[in-house]
Amino acid sequence: MFKQWRWRWRGRLQTISFSFFGQSASVEFSGSERERARSILLRLEDHRVLYAPYDLEEENGSWGSVEALRAYLNEQVEQCESEELRDQVRAMRAAVRQWLTDVESARKLMERTWGDAPPAGRDPVRWAKDRDRVQWAYGLQALGVLRGRVGVAIAEVGREFGIPIDGDLAQVTPPDVDDSERGARLSPLYFAEE
Length: 194
Hints:
The chain has a two-stranded antiparallel ribbon with strand order 1-2. By secondary structure, the chain is mainly α. It has helices at 2-9, 31-45, 59-79, 83-114, 124-161, 177-181, and strands at residues 13-19, 24-29. It has one domain (28-171). Helix 2 (31-45) packs antiparallel against helix 5 (124-161), helix 3 packs antiparallel against helix 4 (83-114) and helix 4 packs antiparallel against helix 5 (124-161). The protein is elongated.
């Protein structure tokens, strides 16, 4: 059992320190796993679907970007050495799968409820645009859930590996609890200016 534990942690740890009287323990990850986490975050910045304004998103463009993100995360899960990074990449991958499921479910719902032809007396072009708009509204709702779940995983990767999250990805990460307790503004949408 000791050999199995040693093999599992080999190459990932730089230092382990314990203190019996101070009751503390610290584990520091090797540079290679930290670099892997950093490269994953850099790659996520290339996917604008995670942070671009909602009104700029289109279903076809978002679908391709999310499919590419899913393929990349599938590759990264296998390459992660640390359980901490692997768990967060799996969480991102699950969020991507959920988005794909939700958008497909919205498409099927629209097919069942709106049918293939407009009701009698309704302009077919206007009817088709309304149907597409309602379907994409469901897609945007799923996109918000995707961004929230991926944002939490990004924040955890940054916290666990000591990588600052800034730039575009910082838009989807949750606010720091310590900053919000000190009176930092969280969101003008939910909290009135005083």
